[in-house]
Amino acid sequence: MERNHTPATRRRRGEPLALLGAAAALALAGALVEAPAASASSSLCNPGCSAAADFQSLGEKLVVHDYDSDGKGAIAFLYNNYESYTCKNTKGYDAPPVTCDYEFKEGSPVSYQVCNLVDGVAVNCSGWREDKA
C-alpha cells in the first residue's frame, strides 16, 4: 500500500518537533539569563580565632568579627589591584560585626588578613587569604 505524503502532511508531522525544539531553546536561554553570577566567599581567623574576617565577593563586602572580650578590637587588611584598604571593628565583643563595603571589578583578585587591634597596632595576625571579587 502506498502512502500519500503531501507537503502539507509532512509539515504537520514536523511542527510538533519544531515547536518542542523552539520551546526548549527558549527555556535554556531563560535559564542562562537568570543564572546568578558566580561568587566566591571565604573566611579566616587569626591564631586563637580571637578575630575573624569573611569576604563576600557578591557585593564585595568584608565583615570583621571581634571574638576577644579584651575590649581592644579587630582589624582586617584587604588588597585589590595594588590598592590597600582597612576595615576596623572597635565595637567590642558583645557588638555585631562590622561590615565594610567596597566596589571592585568583577573577578578581580583580592587578598586579606585579620588581626587583633591593640592600642592602634595590628597584632596576632592571620596569614593572607586570596579570593576573587
Write the layout of secondary structure elements.
Elements: H1 7-34, E1 41-45, E2 51-56, E3 61-66, E4 74-80, E5 83-89, E6 98-101, E7 109-118, E8 121-123, E9 129-132
Mean pLDDT: 80
Number of helices: 1
**What multimeric state do the chains show?**
single chain
Amino- and carboxy-terminal Cα gap? 69 Å
Describe the structure.
The protein is α+β, with helices and mostly antiparallel strands. It has 1 helix and 9 strands. The protein has one helix at about 5-35, and strands spanning about 40-45, 50-55, 60-65, 75-80, 85-90, 100, 110-120, 120-125, 130. The strands form 2 sheets. Strands 4, 5, 7, 8 and 9 form a 5-stranded antiparallel sheet that branches. About 20% of the residues are buried.
What are the salient characteristics of this protein?
133 residues; four-stranded antiparallel sheet; disordered N terminus; 1 helix
Short synopsis of the structure:
This protein is of the alpha+beta class and 133 residues long. The protein has 1 helix and 9 strands, in the order αβββββββββ.
